[in-house]
Design a protein that fits this description.
- The protein is an alpha/beta fold.
- The protein has one domain: Vaccinia Virus protein VP39 (Rossmann fold), CATH 3.40.50.
- 33% of the residues lie in helices and 25% in strands.
- The chain is built from eleven helices and eleven strands.
- The chain has an eight-stranded mixed beta sheet with strand order 4-7-6-5-8-9-11-10, sandwiched between helices.
- It is globular.
- The N terminus is likely disordered.
- It binds S-adenosylmethionine (SAM) and zinc ion.
- Zinc ion binds next to loops.
């Protein structure tokens, strides 16, 4: 971080632990898992290594790839999507969602006796929600999992207690059994069996999914991907074998978005693959400069079934 006036630098100065990305990796290494042999990892010189000699070098930007050999790499978000996501989130439009995730985590944090509990964010992207959690959970450490290297570069800088790991969340997660007290999953793919494996027996999973009303003023006008009416039921169905829902927060609020905000919002998500920017600009030209748009999500906490 070159300028002390940038937001990330301010957050670092306020943090109780003046660690860097690699230090978070050192703290969390023993809870990570070698993708080749499932052994635990220790920090080596700018790398992580297991007892069998498998070695994973840190990228220049501080994250590390823990990918099984000979696997086709998962397609994470491209660099331009990540820039759009960072721009949109930094403007604070989804701050009420981050606050709801913090609130959902509070009862879980209150019950842990672990001196350095860890939270794993599946599909963490820039680490926006993970950093929000770590600002609140002062003794916790966070693992950002994502397939996108441009996203993980940002996650490393989002909070000093974040270790950022490139992986495919549809494969065995590079996390030891029962190593996480909390798993969070915000608008991202979720792998129920693996989440259950990495959670401690008293651990919890917080899932954020959009409702059919999410961005409803924009979806039909801009041709964005809508949310299926049974989205929440489908999430429950994929998790119900291993988890029971214990808390539900319906979070809905109106945002006032500029055309630039809307362009970033479209470009940061799955609609980016379906909608042409030029078409979005044409549609926007017919809309007012400030557009009221509803955000509507379910924030649900699940516990492992006994
Ligand atoms: C819609 S974004 C949400 C990101 C973040 N949770 C947020 O809300 O800001 C989904 C994220 O999942 C990641 N992703 C998609 N498929 C993945 C996979 N198979 N393995 C790991 N990450 C994946 C993408 O790179 C992207 O960062
Ligand atoms: Zn190994």
């Amino acid at each position: 971080m070159s300028s002390p006036s940038r937001p990330g630098a301010r957050r670092r100065a306020r943090s109780p632990i003046p660690a860097t990305g690699p230090t978070a990796l050192a703290v969390l290494a023993a809870r990570l898992r070698c993708p080749n042999c499932a052994g635990s990892l220790v920090p080596a010189d700018r790398a992580l290594a297991c007892a069998r000699g498998h070695r994973f070098d840190l990228a220049r930007q501080g994250h590390v790839a823990l990918l099984a050999p000979r696997r086709k790499r998962a397609a994470g978000d491209a660099a331009d999507m990540v820039v759009s996501r960072e721009t949109f989130l930094r403007a604070g439009h989804y701050a009420p969602i981050a606050a709801a995730v913090q609130a959902a985590a509070r009862p879980i944090a209150a019950r842990t006796a672990d001196a350095a509990p860890s939270v794993v964010d599946l599909g963490a992207s820039t680490g926006y929600y993970l950093a929000a959690l770590l600002r609140e959970l002062r003794a916790w450490w966070g693992v950002a999992l994502d397939a996108s290297a441009p996203a993980l570069r940002r996650a490393v800088r989002a909070h000093p207690r974040i270790a950022a790991i490139a992986c495919d969340v549809w494969q065995p997660l590079p996390i030891q059994d029962a190593a996480a007290r909390l798993v969070v999953n915000v608008f991202a793919p979720r792998n129920g069996p693996e989440i259950a494996r990495v959670l401690s027996p008293d651990g919890a999973l917080i899932v954020v999914t959009p409702t059919p009303r999410h961005l409803h003023q924009l979806v039909p006008v801009l041709g964005m991907l809508g949310v299926a009416p049974d989205k929440r039921a489908r999430v429950h169905a994929t998790l119900s074998a291993r988890f029971e829902a214990v808390d539900h927060r319906a979070v809905a609020f109106d945002m006032t978005l500029t055309h630039q905000d809307v362009l970033a919002l479209v470009a940061m998500g799955p609609s980016a693959h379906h909608v042409e920017t030029a078409a979005v600009r044409r549609h926007l030209a017919r809309l007012p400069a400030a557009i009221r748009v509803t955000a509507s999500v379910d924030v649900e906490t699940f516990r492992r079934r006994a």
